[in-house]
Give the backbone structure.
Amino acid sequence: MRTHVLVVEDEPAMRRALALNLTARGYRVSVAEDGTTALNAAASGAPDVIVLDLGLPDLDGMDIIRAVRGYSRTPIVVLSGRAGSGDKVDALDAGADDYVTKPFDVNELVARLRAATRRAGSDDAHTLIRIGHTAIDLAGRTVTRSGPDGQPERVTLTPTEWQLLEVLLTHPGRLISQRQLLSELRGQPGYTDSSYLRLYIAQLRHKLEDEPSRPRHLLTEPGMGYRYQP
Ligand code: CA
């Protein structure tokens, strides 16, 4: 499938040149000539990547970056006539992925678009964590495992199980103390009691490990805490 790029640029000649060049290189291109149109197109068109000119007639480019970042991780490559490094830092801080100063070479822009979309794709892949035959998507809050017939089946976790699992999985290889995990349970019944922790971890193993009685990934460190071993 062709990569869909949204080009946001108010100068007609530059907009046309970008659209022609990117189409010629295999991109599906949509264009917006001002910030309002850009925000609508970004929300409704679900582009794979956005090329954003910072100097627009109606909205500040920085505000567009922040608005898009409010709901999506779509890569944004900024085009700017301002070469100052302060602008560059501001744009990257606001959530842009890369920055190209005008005048630029189209091949360089295309290389940066490729890199930005590749990074975005691999980020998605990283959120899928495997425990044996179970695949966990932390961001999407889904767990899938292959059933006895080899067909994928959904596994349901409780909010508490997600809380504990998230702490463990985001610290691969690290010992997480009972106290740290119990603090995640604050507000739940029995949150100061480590036997509740044992219960929750046992439930997680039962749902996620291939052999719950001989866990290979959700490990107990006796007297200390728990460890997620990738
Ligand atoms: Ca402009």
Remarks:
- The pocket of calcium ion is lined by residues 10-11, 53, 55-56 (CB under 6 Å).
- The chain has a mean pLDDT of 87.
- The two ends are 33 Å apart (CA to CA).
